[in-house]
Structures are given as C-alpha cells and as structure tokens.
C-alpha cells in the first residue's frame, strides 16, 4: 500500500514539472499535503504490520520447510545450491560449460624486430627515423603511423576535386573567395578548431563539384558546411541557431537542416578526406622545425583557402609546399633533405611551382581586399606572424617574380 502511495506522489511531482512559475507554489503545497497523507498512511500500515509480522513469518517458514522436505524425499537431493535445486525440480539438463582458454599473450618481439628492421633500412637510406622515440607512447601509434599516412594519401586522391567544377556553376570564383573570407571570420568568432575550417572548405568544394548552386543559396551552403565540419571535429559545436544569427536571419533553421541532409547525401556521408593540417604536423616533425616556422606554414596554407587555383593540389602537396616556403623565408640555410622528402613524399623540384604561387599570395596579401586570414594571424595568439618583418624579405619577391 505504501508503495502505491509513493508512486502516486512521484507521478504528481512529475506532472507538475512542466507547469508555469505561477503554479509552482501550488504544486509545492500539494506536494506537502500528499507527503503528510503518505506519512500518516505509512505509520498506520506499519502499526498493523507489526502486529501481524511474527504470525506471517512463522507461517511462511513452516510452509517453505515442508516443501523443501517433500522435494528432498521425492528427488533424493543432497545439494543445497539454488541452481542445483532448480535444475532437479524442473527437470532441466544443462550441458557442462567448457572452460574457456585464456588467449596467449602477444609476442611483441616480432613487432620490435619489424620496427628495428624499418629503422635500419631508412638509416641506410640517409633518412632519420622520426618515430624512434615514440615506441613507448601508445597514443602516437608509432608501429602504424607510416601505414596510416600512406592510407591518407590514398584517400586524398580518391576524393580529389575536379579543377574545372566552377564551369558548371552560376557562381564565380570571386563569389567563392568572398564566401570563404567571411567563413574565416565566422570560424574565428566561434573559436573553432583549425581542422574545422579546413574541413569546411573541403566540404564546400566537394559539394559544389557535384551540385549546381544559385547565388542566393551560396551562403547557406557555406554555413551548413561549417555546421557539418563542427559536428565532425568539435567537442561542443555551435547550434543551428548560432548560424541563423550569424547570417542575420537570412536562412531559417529548417533551411539549414534541409541543406545539411542534402550535402551529406551528395557526399555519401564521406567526410574522412585528410586535411592539410594533418600532413603539416608530420612534415614539421620530420623537419624538426620550431613553432615560428610551423605557424608561418599554417598562415600560408590558410591564404590558399580562398584561392580557387589551389583546389587542384592535394592537401599533402599544399602542406609540404607551405613548410618548404616557410623554411626558405625564416632559415635560408635549411635544406629540403632526404628525411623531408621521405616523409612528405615530395621532392623540392616537385614543390617548386606551388611554392612560387604561395610566394605570390604572401607578396600580395597586404594589398588584397580580403584581409580575414591576414588579420587573424596578426594577433599575438599566432605570434603576429602576418605582420612580421621576415615577410618583407627579398626571398618572397624573388620567388614571386619567378612565377610571373
């Protein structure tokens, strides 16, 4: 009885959770009245129960003892475990369970021998093993890191964007540049990860490759691409309402949701194409560069995002070329050695045309109408790299002239 009253109290309390603030006081008073009634009922029940408790327990124990005795006489049982009694009473036949053998411990000597052989081979080639000190850290996956990057290069070729997709579009290259320059500002406003920005542009280009978009829907595609990228990369992505606000209510939540479904269907839900930033980290480790060179490389890579002419290059090519140009600017004595060639998979000769185009971007950045990336990297958070004196060196102008 007390259980039923307690359940009723919970139901009444749950039903009142959705009421307005004006009704909260009444709900609390009703809850107190129900609680007093419940307490009174419990006390009266306990009083009755105390009088009958001994009688019911004795009767129950006597019935159970008689039942056990009768079962033992009929079945001749000697076991006292509940499982054995249940099997005998209902006549179940249970097959004995075979003991599961514990798996043998993995022989790590084979893995160690393979790693030592790989290290010896690349040392004979004059290449440093940049993962030799990472074997004790399982998070760095030193046993598989080279296979992982080999697979990433396969994926970037599989999801490569056509260089002529703009020909089928109503929009122009300039419209794309304006949109991406604005998306960089939105990305900075929301304090999102760098991976989110690169993935946003990648989703945008891959969608425009397979679907014609009107001028009025271009910004919708842009913010929806960032929403998808944020859900993929961020721990706490912005809500749809944030993107409605940032577009000044140009699009509704329903329109963004519909576009999100459309983009994911067109891309067949394949969002795993590698990003420039992934390859840059590997190249920076191979080159042993400092934070200054690494940050300048990121600045150069982000300058390429609004430029349609860089769509034809793979993310690994852009990352390697950005690091190559960064080292030329900040450390003219540093060479693109065998270790960098091995881990980036590109020679300096292969990267030379891309480096020259990047030098043109750096040279023209102060005069460009689109300043989102440059202003972003002018902050102390990014070492004020876009306003550093090194970017006024003759190395950049010479390389830019070679491209002309």
TrEMBL record:
Q: Which GO terms describe its cellular component?
A: cytosol
Q: Where is the Cyclin-like domain?
A: 181-265, 278-360
Q: Which residues are in the Cyclin C-terminal domain?
A: 274-391
A GO term (biological process) for this protein? mitotic cell cycle phase transition
Among the GO molecular function terms of this UniProt record, one is:
cyclin-dependent protein serine/threonine kinase regulator activity
Sorted alphabetically, which InterPro entries does this protein's record hold? Answer: Cyclin, Cyclin-like_dom, Cyclin-like_sf, Cyclin_A/B-like, Cyclin_C-dom, Cyclin_N, Cyclins_cyclin-box
Q: Which UniProt keywords apply?
A: Cell cycle, Cell division, Cyclin
Q: Does the keyword Hydrolase apply?
A: no
Q: Which PROSITE patterns match?
A: CYCLINS (PS00292)
Matching SUPFAM superfamilies, A to Z? Cyclin-like
Under PANTHER family, the record lists: CYCLINS (PTHR10177)
What is the purpose of this protein? Answer: Essential for the control of the cell cycle at the G2/M (mitosis) transition.
Q: What family does the Swiss-Prot or TrEMBL record give for this protein?
A: Belongs to the cyclin family. Cyclin AB subfamily.
Q: What is this protein called?
A: G2/mitotic-specific cyclin-B
Annotated organism of origin: Patiria pectinifera (Starfish)
